[in-house]
Each structure stands twice: as structure tokens, then as C-alpha cells.
Amino acid sequence: MSSTRNAPSSPASLTADGAAWLASAEPYPRSTRALWDEHPEAPVVLACGSVFDIVSAPAIFGRRMVDQLWEEGPGSGPVAMFRGRMLLFAVPGTAQRLPSLLRWEEFGRAGDVPPLLCHGTGDAVTVPARSDTAVPSGTRWLVAPDTRNPWLPGPEVLLWAAVRAARAAVRISIFPHADQDAKVYDVSRRR
């Protein structure tokens, strides 16, 4: 399935409805929203597992996953950057299910594929500030939640995106690596 949608390329702002959805992950959502209202430039730590899970990938590989989700799939849910890692928001339960799916696909067998960190029940993550001002640490929203019920990918969708991103990153050649001191002869024009 091909889509004409493109992954967002500029930082996004968190809407009031998106902030309400994120705050609902906490036992005291009004306190979280009050903190954000008082300090909209401050990142906030939120609990995973009840409203969302997080799949954390190194920035470049995570961007490839997001590109796969937007180019050939349903799009992504909210996505954030934090300390050089891409945080993909996912359906609760993804953190428990995705690692076993990745093992089943033998994902990560090659050393070129980075490990994905899955955060679910009992974990907490730092999410970017409510305002769209970039923080020096590079924490920002790539796709900010904008509704009280954003669509979130499940473990199968993220597995598919990770496998496709890994395949796209691995370049296979039938030719061995060039030896700089080797003499190369063109044998394609034999007489």
C-alpha cells in the first residue's frame, strides 16, 4: 500500500487536547497539566503502560522507521526526539509484545541493526516541552499529539516498520569490498 503522505519534517507544537491526553497517563493529570501550564518550556516525565507505550530507537534508525510508517503504512502516532533517540508512541502492551515479535523475526541478528528499547508498565519517559521551542538537548516533538485520542501503532505495525527500515539500511552487494592495491581487469569485453 503506497501513500502520498509524507512524514513531518519540522517540529510540531503540542495542542491543549494533546497535552490532556498525555497528562491522562499520570495518576494526577490535573497536576501534570498545571505544571505544563506554568512551565510550557519544560519537559515532563510521564508513566508508560496505561495510555501509551514507548518504543525508543536511535535517531537515524527511528527516522527510517517513521519514514516507513508514513511512506508505506498507516502513518505514525506521536513521535518525539529525546537525547539522540526517537520515541515512538504505541498502543499499551506493545512494550511487552514487540520484543518477542522481533526475536521471532530474528531481527537484530546482524550487528548493523540497533536494539529497540521498549517502555511499558512500570516505566516512565521524558517527553518534550509543551511549547515548540527547541531545547538545547534536542528534545522536541516530531509529531505532537493533537487530539485526546490519537491513533497509535501496535506491535505488528512497528515490527513491520522496523524490519523494512533494517532491510533498507542494509546494502547487499555481490561484489566484494574493493582492495585499494588490487589490479582490476574489465572482463566484460572478452573477444
Question: What's the topology here?
Answer:
Blueprint: H1 16-23, H2 29-38, E1 44-47, E2 53-58, H3 59-72, E3 79-82, E4 85-90, H4 94-104, E5 117-119, E6 124-127, E7 140-143, H5 155-169
Antiparallel strand pairs: 1-6, 2-4, 2-5, 3-4, 3-7
What does this structure look like?
Helix 1 crosses helix 2, helix 3 packs across helix 5 (155-169) and helix 4 packs across helix 5 (155-169). This protein has one domain. With 191 residues, the protein is of the alpha+beta class. The strands form 2 sheets. The chain has a 5-stranded antiparallel beta sheet, covered by helices on one side. It has a two-stranded antiparallel sheet with strand order 1-6. The protein has helices at residues 16-23, 29-38, 59-72, 94-104, 155-169; strands at residues 44-47, 53-58, 79-82, 85-90, 117-119, 124-127, 140-143.
Enumerate how many helices there are, as a single number: 5
Largest sheet: 5 strands, antiparallel
Fraction of residues in H or I helices:
25-40%
> Between the first and last Cα atoms, what is the distance in angstroms?
47 Å
Fraction of residues in β-strands: 15-25%
- The SS-based structural class is alpha+beta
| Count of separate structural domains | 1
Spatial sequence of strands, sheet with the most strands: 5-2-4-3-7
Low-confidence stretches: 1-5
Can you tag this structure with a few keywords?
191 residues, alpha+beta, five-stranded antiparallel β-sheet, 5 helices, 16% strand, globular, disordered N terminus
